[in-house]
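Field reference: sequence -> structure
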Amino acid sequence: MTRFVLSTMYAQTARFDDGAEFARFAQDAGYDAIEISHSTPAEKIEAIHAANILPIASVHQPAPLRQVGGRPNSNLNLAAIDEDERKLAVFHTLDSIRLAGEVGADAVIVHLGHLGGTSRAWAGDREARRLFAAGTPHREAAGRALAVRLADAPPYLEAARKTLAELVEVASLLGVTLGLESRLNLPEFPLPLELPALVDGYTPEQVGYWHDVGHAEVLWRMGYIDRFDWFREPGVRCAGAHVHDVTQLTDHRAPGAGDVELAEHARHLSGLDAVTLEINQHQPEEQVRMTIPLLKSLGF
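Structure field:
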């Protein structure tokens, strides 16, 4: 039976400054476990764990939230070709892996990095999205952006492979699976066709793919890739999923608050041991409470 997990993404309000209060809410709303979001500070994580109300199923790298040079550590790039930057990102991700071991989590969700922030792939993606938002034809711009993304990726992808090897070395010792998450923006890793080479040489217990419903939908709506191409790559195991809804290109809505065909995703995800509801803190409480019966009715 599938476990339903609530991410602490929803806990970013004063009401849940005490992590134990969030754990009590998640239990009362019918959730089976908690995922630690990368937006969560150490004190809240400690309170959730100490409360021992619900188990912590997974940790989203780079939890706990810390500031690095005045910016959150989630901005660090695991695929940076600058070695100092890459090593700093690895340092914070290893903290997440060790945290997972300490709290008994089975998996760490990894944002494997991206083409550098000033790359032309980012500029192309922004232009295509601007056209989409304006309601004007965007597919030609999206095609150009995708071609640039694929052409410029190799050195960053090689850095990402190096990073993954370093992370697996520690995660394997702790019995933690790394889930490579499908990302929201075109310049981020991985795209579906990059997955087989990334997981090659690792067991499914070491590295898998983490399907983010909202991100897959956004990339599909932009015309970059089919939303289910992630499941068609050979030798790639889906280790887990983030489920949330989307309106236009805005994600992290509560299921039912957007227009994603969630039943279509359920066909690919129904065999998972757990799915995480990654719902932002602005969604109404009643929708967060209604999520589990809704997803069950759709086949999750």
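Note: The first helix runs from residue 19 to 28.
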